[in-house]
Amino acid sequence: MSALAAAADTVDGGQRALTISLFVIFVVATLVITIKASRNNATAADFYSGGRSLTGPQNGVAIGGDYMSAASFLGIAGIIALSGYDGFLYSIGFLVAWLVALLLVAELLRNSGKYTMADVLAFRMKQRPVRVAAGISTITVSIFYLLAQMVGAGALVTLLLGVSSDTAKNITIVAVGALMIFYVTVGGMKGTTWVQIIKAVLLMTGTSLVTILVMIKFGGSVSALLGEAAAQSGKGDAFLNPGLKYGTDAQGLAGKLDLISLGIALVLGTAGLPHILTRFYTVPDAKAARKSVLWAIGIIGSFYLMTICLGFGAAALVGPDAIKAQNPAGNTAAPQLAEAIGQEFFGDLGGTLLLAIIAAVAFATILAVVAGLTLASSSSFAHDIYASVIKRGQADEKSEVRVARIAAFAIGGTAIVLSIYAQKLNVAFLVALAFAVAASGNLPAILYSLFWKRFNTTGAVSAIYGGLLSSVILVFFSPVVSGKVTPGVNGAPDVSASLFGLGTDFSWFPLENPGLVSIPFGFFCGWLGTVLSKEHNAEKYAEMEVRSLTGAGSEKAVQH
Amino acid sequence: MSTVHDRSSTHAGGGESFEQVQATDEFQGLKRTLRRFVFPATALFLGWYLLYILLTAYARDFMSTKLIGEINVAYVFGLSQFVSTFAIAFVYSRYAEKRFDPTADTIRHRLEGTVPAEATVKPAKPRKPAKPTPTSTVKETST
Question: Could you tell me the pTM of the whole model?
Answer without folding.
Answer: 0.90
